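Hi team, as promised in this morning's meeting, here are the two structures we talked about. I've kept the exact order from the run log so nobody has to guess. The first one is mostly here for context; it's the second one we should focus on when we meet again. Sequence first, then the predicted structure tokens.
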Amino acid sequence: MPVQSLSRRRLLRMSAATATLAAGGTAGFAQLAFAQRKKDAPINLDDLLKPGALPDLILGKADAPCTIIEYASMTCSHCGHFHTTVFDTIKTKYIDTGKVRFIMREFPLDTLAVAASMLARCAGGEKTIPLIGVFFAKQDDWAFQRSNQIPELFKIAQQVGFTKDSFDKCLTDQPLYDKIVEGRERASKDFGVDATPTFFINGKRLQDAPTLEAFDKAIGEIVKS
């Protein structure tokens, strides 16, 4: 999905905005400007592999011959489709067999995406990536509704142990919010990310639609070399 202007009030002007979101609203960001890099500009692989303000979310062996980096938004339907129809096969076929190291990075398109990303990060440890998967699988329940988005997120978060207090505390974590936004700024400015999902395979941007066939081709060329 293409980048949208995040021209709303900040996600949470802390506790007051939490109440707005909890009531089903989507008051959000201040205007964010992104100095975007051209897609075809050369990318330094070492720079791309360096984590940003937040630790990378990683699956797979550190010495895998192929590294895939995904930039995704939790409210992106194309990202949801990839994670519910393609990702599990990639995990079984390539990640679990030591051929691919998969790195997930946030590139939120809107307020709600930041909220979901914050919750996934707050879940912590081995709960983070599975919670991301649940959020994608249940997008219809929360991401595409006109109201009650935050209460629906809370219902999902409860499944991994969130209480109302821990849920509200997470969504009012200003440093976490800032780091997620900083990660998006870096992706746009340094690596030309302008849509979600965007994939880099050993530093080369995947130009084709993220189908299993496209990944088979790109990964196969690397593993054989």
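And here is the second protein, the one for discussion:
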Amino acid sequence: MTEQTAPSSSISIGQAFWYWLKLGFISFGGPAGQIAIMHQDLVERRRWISENRFLHALNYCMLLPGPEAQQLAIYIGWLMHRTWGGIIAGCLFVLPSLFILIGLSWVYLAFGDVPAVAGLLYGIKPAVTAIVLSAAHRIGSRALKNDWLWGIAIAAFVAIYALNLPFPLIVLAAGVIGYFGGRVAPEKFVVGSGHGNTARTFGPALIDDATPTPAHARFTWARFMRVLLVCLGIWLAGIGSLTLVCGWDAVLTQMAWFFTKAALLTFGGAYAVLPYVYQGAVEHFRWLSAAQMIDGLALGETTPGPLIMVVSFVGFVGGWTKAIFGPDSLFLSGAVAVTVVTFFTFLPSFFFILTGAPFIESTHGNLKFTAPLTGITAAVVGVIANLAVFFVYHVLWPKGLSGHFEWASLFIGAAAAVAIFRFKLGVIPVITGCGLLGLVWQLLH
């Protein structure tokens, strides 16, 4: 059981700033791991928000295109500290990963194959796999409170793993089941029903189940239109400026337009949109090669931040390859391109939360709205389990079942799992230790 301390009566925006900055550096493990970290920190340890309110926000974020963990951070930051709180949380969730990927991309392009980096990545991949497995266990143990929800989770796993059904269809089906299930058997779809009562386990939270919605989080059409116009204005100003300065067919302008469209297609997370990014960035625009795209995915998986941050690698390599500012300014070309790509990829996330979250807050506790979201949460557990299986397969059989089996990866992954499940070690020591084990293994070979 988590050690309990009374939550502070209020959290300053300065305290929140330092937490969101720390989260940006430790948010490994993709969306599953990142959501688990936030749950452990904000629900269990700090108790800034109750589990029911946390899950209510998470369910909405799962419905949206884009990185759900970052959107959850924006949501909680906004709920606590208004618009600037959401902006700070969302930006700090991404910025550490952006700077790390800029550095790694530069090393990758300027120095080629770096054994030390390869070794670290070799050890980190099994650790990430263990983190995802831990997240699936943690979230599943809290979300799957009865046979109905277990059934939805298992069906979602089969649908995405065996039938290869698209994630949006799975979400829609789970929402429909939740809607009708809430009418037929409402007790099965009440958030927080069943065993494991949140208040008994974690104590009162700063934003608790019964805490009234703050004034800034109440839905009004005037506020909705104001935020809509501001967000659209920022997007139009950005892409309009690039068009005026560089021209519509320029690399930076085409990146802005392409990754805006990609951001609106990321239902189901980064893996769902990767085929679209591959087709456009590799085959159509030729910003990078297929081999570079695979290397970028490996870097995106093993750095903090959303998995969709692989697009930042694409942007850097594309700017470098096309030498936007000439052959003597390759780093500048890459850095400017990656900034453009990241801005236009993540801007929609802020739009979706700042416009939609006030309406979602108004549905808190209303079974008509919460039952479909409860069904979606159960389906997401199955999808996370599928992600864990995906990681296990590609880490242990990197060249397919006909290729060799990575016994060293199995050993490192097992050690990470023991560290997480048995000794409850945090993400940073697990990632660091496994990275060092991978480095030693590669040096020995």
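Starting points for discussion:
Residues 10-113+143-195+218-393 form one domain.
The chain is about 75% helix and 0% strand.
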